[in-house]
Design goal:
This is L-histidine N(Alpha)-methyltransferase. With 323 residues, this protein is an alpha/beta fold. It has a domain at 56-199 and 289-322: Rossmann fold. The chain contains nine helices and 13 strands. A hairpin with a 5-residue loop joins β12 (304-310) and β13. The longest helix is centred in the N-terminal third of the chain and has 20 residues, at 57-76. Bound molecules: N,N,N-trimethyl-histidine (AVJ). N,N,N-trimethyl-histidine binds next to β11.
Length: 323
């Protein structure tokens, strides 16, 4: 087992957060990138979101994988699985099991920002699968994709990017990112991409504003991250959770709305930020897809749609694309 880390305290997380906050809070329309939701507490809140009755993506994607993993392995002949944002690899085991049944399982490459997750998953999977080799990468997939090891000759690679996280990218950066994934693939290799699908806006909005208030707490948690990491003084009770579906762009936005006029200090940056009454700070976009839009994004990135798997209600899709 190999685990390589490309993050270190100063070149990685902290400086990236400070730069993002300085950019995002001095813009005319305030914005923070969603990746800063996921400190330890945010990761726990996200896991709880996935269990809420209104939040359909996680359980739907899992059901599609369970139904179609054997077909995915048959279609791709996968010997190697590279997983971007591997986390606890809960859904991964469904794919690895199918590869094992097909007799093709050779190597798993988990890629995640959280070092402990990569190490724990690597150790657990080595125990669970005989003859599996694991090469873990600790990094930020927006910066370190080129550190993924070259495929060993004869391997059929599948790069999995699950959960619908591709939806967090704006359209231009989404295509840039897909192009960088395409560069990791040899002809005949595949991308397995999880995407949420366009549907009744009421269903989407409920998924991002659950009755138990878990998503609202997750949204506000980014302010707690800023308070701790950048010595800011956000009052979490002075911001309301907002989630609305933008039909033109086909994405959901989460925002935090200031309930009053207020000035917030971000002391580590020497920054004072003014919020007007009801002014909103955008914290996430999560794009929803149609088959046509996926085909266009893939084509613009040098990829071709090979197969698409969805649930009976057409809520979510797993798309296989090849170079
Ligand atoms: C992890 C980006 C797929 O957009 O649905 C869940 C994050 N935000 N609820 C999503 C999220 C609010 C999630 N992704």
């Amino acid at each position: 087992m190999v685990v390589e880390s490309f993050l270190d305290g100063t070149s990685g997380g902290e400086r990236a957060l400070a730069d993002d906050v300085l950019d995002g809070l001095t813009r005319p329309f305030k914005e923070l990138p969603p990746k800063h939701f996921y400190d330890a507490h945010g990761a726990v809140l996200f896991d709880r979101i996935c269990e809420q009755p209104e939040y359909y993506p996680t359980r739907t994607e899992r059901a599609i994988l369970q139904a179609d993993a054997d077909a995915i392995v048959a279609e791709t002949g996968a010997t190697e699985l590279v997983e971007l944002g591997s986390g606890t690899a809960a859904k991964t085991r469904v794919l690895l099991d199918a590869m094992e049944r097909a007799g093709t399982l050779r190597r798993y490459v988990p890629f995640d920002v959280t070092e402990s997750m990569v190490r724990d998953v690597a150790a657990a999977l080595l125990d669970e699968y005989a003859d599996l080799s694991v090469h873990g990468i600790v990094g930020d997939f927006e910066r370190h994709l080129d550190r993924v090891p070259a495929p060993t000759p004869g391997d059929r690679r599948v790069v999995a990017f699950l959960g619908g996280t591709i939806g967090n990218f704006t359209p231009g950066s989404r295509r840039r990112f897909l192009r960088r994934i395409a560069a990791m693939l040899a002809p005949g290799d595949h991308l397995l991409l999880g995407t949420d699908l366009v549907k009744d806006p009421a269903v989407i909005e409920a998924a991002y504003d659950d009755a138990a208030g878990v998503t609202a707490a997750f949204n506000r948690n980014v302010l707690r991250v800023l308070n701790r990491e950048l010595d800011a003084d956000f009052d979490l009770d002075a911001f309301e959770h907002v989630a609305f579906y933008d039909r033109e762009h086909e994405w959901i936005e989460m925002r935090l709305r200031s309930v009053r006029q207020q000035t917030v200090a971000v002391r580590a940056l020497g920054l004072e930020v003014e919020f007007a009454p009801r002014e909103e700070l955008r914290t996430e976009i999560s794009a929803k897809f149609t088959r046509e839009r996926l085909i266009a994004d893939l084509a613009a990135s040098g990829l071709e749609l090979a197969e698409q798997y969805t649930d009976p209600d057409g809520l979510f899709a797993l798309t296989l694309a090849r170079r």
